[in-house]
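PROTEIN–LIGAND DATA SHEET

This sheet pairs a single protein chain with one bound small molecule, zinc ion, given as SMILES. Inputs appear in the order they were entered. The predicted three-dimensional arrangement of chain and ligand is reported afterwards as a token string under its own label.
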Amino acid sequence: MSVQFGSRLLGVLLLIWMMGFSACDADDTDAGSSDSDSDGDSDSDSDSDSDSDSDSDNDTDSDTDSDTDIDTATDTDIDSDTDTDIDTDTDTDTEIDTDTETETDTECGEPPPADQDWITEYQQEIIAKLTGEDEIAPGVTLESRSSAGERETAREYLLEVWQELGLTTEAHEYSSGANPYAILEATEESDEWVIYGAHYDSVSAGPGAEDNASGITGVCAMARYAAMIECRSRNLIFIGFDQEESGLIGSRAFAKYLKENDYNVHSMHNFDMIAWDGDDDLVIEVGAPSDGMVEFYEDVVANSEFDFELKESTLAASDHSAFKSQGFKALMFIEEFSFGDRSPYFHTADDTYDKIDFDFMAHVTILANLGIAELTRVD
Ligand SMILES: [Zn+2]
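PREDICTION REPORTED AS:
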């Protein structure tokens, strides 16, 4: 399904591009041929026509020619006159122009480095609260994020984290739960949305430090990084999915909501279990990516100063599948779950804060930050 969607999308994009290209071509060709007509044919046509045949031919020819002449003449006149006026006559205008360009360059400079030095400390603080290592609210310590009450506590905390970053927050409520999310709108005109998400619920057995306090904590750090980028060409959503452990219930509800409301979703990036690296090789598994998404990240890495090894799998059992089911492009980042290097504490009471590999979490977060910088880049 995602392959069909991907190729259909690619086809449509190709078609649009070709139409744009051929339209440009047509314009160029028209302009070129008009020029050559007016330079060459028109003289001979009008001479021979006026002497001999029909007036209508002559009229048509001369109309066309004069249109072309007028266009060309007007364009040239306006451009050269205006430029000349500004440059020579009004010094003030010239100065203002220069100043504006300089300001724009400064504002939309390169995005901040993806490897922010606050990442690990920030993630330690958030994940400690989500896993009961620290109080999440005065007098409140979570044992898991499974019951309706525990999930609500976690949800309210996540909304606070995002509000502290200055982001607009919402809770997408559905029949049995709610998906808290933060919106960071593009600074340029855009109707495209890129979604960074992770489930925030856990199994009832324990605090689910790795599964999936790690993923949602990573998404919080990504939101903080994205908010530091001054010029952004796409809209961003950072979201925590409810009830993933009960069968992707929250993400299915949200993907359906986006589809029904005609959101132009560029892509969805899912983070599930990103804090285990038993062999310390820093390899990241990419689960069931839609067409082109691994290539996107490989290009981003190739153009960066960082090294990442990505291993592709067909692992679909997480929230990215809910988006793919609605025809959206999506992928998942996860520890090497399909390749034997995965947490032995998965879905047990021992999936606790002390098992978290913060270096691996930061590694995955830096990769995501590089992607955010590229996907919001203003040309
Ligand atoms: Zn999970």
